Fold these 4 entries.
Entry 1:
Amino acid sequence: MTARFGVIGFRAWGSCYAGAIAKCGGAKLTAIAGNTPESLGRAAEKHPDVALTADYRELLARDDVDIVSVVVPNALHEEMAVAAFDAGKHVLLEKPMANSISACDRILDAARDSGRLLCIAHELRLSSQWGRIKSLVSEGRLGDPMYLTIELWRRPYRSGSDGWRYDSDLVGSWMLEEIIHFVDLAPWYFEDLGEPASISAAGNSKGRDAGLYDNFSLTLRWPGGQYAVISQKVAGFDNDMTAGLVGTAGAVRAQWSAAMNRSDTPSASMRLIEDLTGEERFDISEPQEIVLERPSGEIFELDTLISHTVKSIESGVPLVSGEEGRRAVAICRAAEMAMNERREVDLDL
């Protein structure tokens, strides 16, 4: 069966979605909704055989659309996802799931009422690097997880169409832009430990609107003493991400670097040390290099996400469920509360 996709939103990332769908086996791009003549003109050039509309509701009314990819500013996610479920469509929803927990709940209700599948686009889980860390934990090669660090250093964000990414009403918070990916990864890596119990955070900005943090760091803590430190700086240059996980019997570190986050020629590496006993001192053995199975980077993960979503429609099991998407939003909002109130906040997930 071919999964027929409609894409709502055709700016920078929406055009990437459309391109990934168009080349995916088992998928067919049948319709695109854009909100400007310019974006629809670009869509016509790149996808001349695809139906175009300026009204997303017309796309939802089409019989030749099975699943809708919603790739629009964050504040519009709830409206369009709920409308898609009301129209009987499956939904692949770009992160964040929504700007608030209550909006996430309304999307979840609409998904349950419709009986259709909700997939949240936390595609880093499919990465040959960040997803591989999870595999190493699940295989027991690191022992019991103890500590995780994820750090992003990058240039300032693109403005987005009409500057929406710098409008706090539309973006919600920069916590919901990129750091939310890492907030999704941490509980996934530590899945066997249960949910994190508390969070603390610190951040600042260059006099921007509320929620637009140039620098932000948070610490998630689990009941058994395990913890994760996640840090994001969007006031730098280039795009560099590092993740390291330490367990009772090993450790892994992954690095990704490029001039831009959507680079197709990044520098990517992973190193692993295992079979540790706890008695090691300075002269531990050298780590081994892990050969990546495929290129790493969000444009590559997007291709894999579309292929995985096609399979999810058949199996009924999403890569990231709506409940998991809601959890990531809840943790991000709790991190902002912890920062603003300068205290550790208990999590009720």
Entry 2:
Amino acid sequence: MAERKVVSASSLSPWQKRSIDSVALCLRFCYALNSCNLLQLMGGNRMANEKKRTTMSVREMGDLLGLKKTDRYWLVHKQEFQVINVDGKMRVDLESFERWYANQTHYRKVTGEEPGRTVATESYSIQEVADLLGVCKASAYEILINHAIETITVNFHKRVPKAAFQKWYASQCWYRTPEDRARDRPMEEASISMPEFGRMLCLDRRETYVVLSKIASKLDFIVIADRKRITKKSFERWYASQSTYVKVSDRPLAEQRRIAREYGRKQAESLMPRIKIPMDKALYTPRELAVLLNVTEKEVYNMLKREELPARKISGRFWISRESLQSYLTENNIILDEWMEE
């Protein structure tokens, strides 16, 4: 084995010193160059990773939504979000995917994140409209149709833009939100409506408005939701100043019971009208048609508005011919059990 020789710097010649310094400088340069290349490589990999995070594969998208292979590619085929081609493979753009997810309510992520955040903040569902107005869902649909309120369709479901709903709501006084009803409740409790005035004195509709027209100057009126109401204080003041009319509650008990029975009978007759429809009539009124079809008169008018039933307007009234009625029954496979004869 060769013996290692230690040479001191003082014993080296100037030429040898310069050679050693040159070699050391080269080594430092190579080390610095390798370090720079390594940093660039790491930075490039980091940038590449960041670039990859802007997309995801179709499989990752399907796993995120809990979809099987066929459903994944069907969703891609519908072009709901942007899909790009990277090295011959389809990848889903994350930004467009999240934007689509926030504007739909059908699909739901397995992570539990709620869909349709943008839709929920910008529009109401039909059920939400019904809850706001205190009506059933069917009535909410009728309101949208009758008042031509703007709607949008999201995943085959109709929704109402909040701006369109607020614009319609501000233009009317008939329907009220729970907040408005709570605000008006103290005034409603301190007043009575016109029909309540008639029932308290046992008056029919005509008599009620005749009496009100005579004593209007003695009563105080307020308007709630575009309806006139009489303050209870002014009603009691007027009632104490006259002796012509007597409240039902101030009458003998036997008479109160008789009035209650009579009122109940009238209510039942108004809910179930008993009118006879001649079999050989050439023209029918909407009310007669409602009895024949066992629907409300309002539903008949909606059918006329949708032009499901041809009708003629004579002297301001709608008339439906027997031929039009028979045609409607045939098209809709409706069979009437019997035609009520005179």
Entry 3:
Amino acid sequence: MAGATPPEQQPRGRTTMRDVAALAGVGIKTVSRVINGEPNVSAAKQEAVWAAVAQTGFRRNDSAALLRQGHTSSIGLVLEDAADPFSSALTRSIQDVAHEHGTVLFSASSAEDPVKERDLALAFCARRVDGLIVVPASGSHTYLRPELEAGMACVFVDRPPLGIEADTVLVDNIGGAREGVEQLIRYGHRRIAFVGDRLEIFTARQRLRGYRDALAEAGLDVDPALVYNGLPHHDTTRAWLRDVLASDAPPTGVFCGNSRCTVETLRAIAQSPVRPALVGFDDFELADLLVPAVTVVAQDPFGIGRTAAQLLFRRLEGDTTPVQHIHMRTRLVPRGSGEIRP
């Protein structure tokens, strides 16, 4: 049987000011004054304290002081999925702005689950973050009303909240989708399929509306058999794509509502003799290296994140202007797949 761990190998707790004071041969108050840069401490004692800090690895705990000042120099970010390319770019840009303001960013993923989103957002609030940025799941956000009424700054990104009024930074989903479908129409397509995410998601509904608007403006009817909304990475989505491409009247063009739908559609096209033109909403890695390269309606996640973070920090600095709703423009990037004629 293994023996007990020798005392010298047992883990110790965090080094405290008391440990530093004992090693430096001074009082705890002297250690505090040196670490906080207060005057009237002799050079010899300062040198002894800093030597003890270096030897013990002491790190100051700012939590109590920050709470006494009424802030924690931290903000929370609740995302749909941190692994998603859009989310990772969004996080990086928000983190950059937070760093510029001397603030730490904490982030977590809701996995598009309203209950998990609520739990994460309220957990951040319980830890007294100064503000929140939320990419909301579907569902009510009235759970945040007490926090907002208490002065919590909050900005919603990509989708608006339900049940409360709050600052939002959104993309022109309708206009972007309309422009993408118009590109297919411009190149002669009349049977255009739509492949989008679940309709309970705000962006999916908006992009479907843009698709419908583009067809209506061109005098084209929407064929329900060419419209699909569902989980992108799901067997039912793959089955629908396979069936519609193998039908007697397959679409000559396809518009995809997000990058995940685009990737699934590309996989389906690769296994089909039908080669429709394709435009996707959202750029994605390697889209420009495929043959043909993929035409996309591009968002700017870095710009969206920076805009949202700057708005949040303006609120934290005392901006009391009315609730703002900022809409970011998209950009059509023609690369070849959307410029194939029927």
Entry 4:
Amino acid sequence: MKGQDAIPAGRDQEMESLYRRVAELEQEGAGLRELNKALRDNEQKYRLIADHSGDCLWTMDLATLRFTYVSPSVMRLYGSTPEETMTQGIDEVMPPHSLEIAMRALEEEMALEATGADPRRTRTIEIEEYRHDRSIVWIENVLSFLRDEQQRPVAILGVSRDVTERRCLGEELRKLAVTDPLTGAFNRRHFMEELLREMGRSNRYAFPFSLIMLDIDHFKAVNDRFGHEMGDRVLEGLVELIRKRLRVSDILARWGGEEFLIMLVNTTLRQAVQLTEALLEGLRTRPFPDVGLLTASFGVTQYRDDESVDALLNRVDDLMYQAKRKGRARMVHDPIQGEDLATS
């Protein structure tokens, strides 16, 4: 099997830049928690501080779950005035799934009260919330209780900050970490993680899954004749063609060079063969721009109970190279229910 292509230097620089920005945003989050603590320690001064803070500070009556104070910076975060916000119920400021998270956190905190937990503790939750125009923002909320003279919780003190940028950067970093930079298919490392997970699931619950390995035939000739840039476009076009046939649950990865692996969950060998036939037909009928028709060789197999990952990958690799030796532009798969090794 071919090795995975090296990650371009620019890719490393991009990831390093994103990591630095995420670290900066996380440091700001630490400052947010310190602000909540300072406000709780100096309750008589919190409104003065809140009126001049870039973060949105608020209090909410614990019995009614209605806002009793909202700082002016709510306009910057949510696009609504303090007065408008204070007329809203908690179910009006966040989507149902976020409301569920918030209420579950509140229930857990109230349960902790009965255990003698630290009354000065804070709870941080990141949830999606509505802006005034009903668009969605990610908000980090650092929450604590305000207490009466008997130290009973009577209100919630919240410090809220827009962390949408941090969430987006985190998602971009995650995507960079698991995808091939050229084609957008998953990379080899991520595929191996998903493969091991699916093997465990199959061993526990007897769910079938199958693998398809394919390699573009005579791809070197494409690069030699049309140039590597055109070769890159061919790889991108192939991934696009394959994705149109896959389900959301299937995993497509660039295994190395012009070689790709597909994992089909809850899929028998017969079903995987049918999909491969469709892919072969798609290649026969879809010319690549400025290049023309290309073919690929396919190997197809189904996972066998308790076999090793090396045995599985070596088998599908061998089947694919059998297709190469038999003349390319075809599929070789394991026998189906007593049939001989099949080629098509």
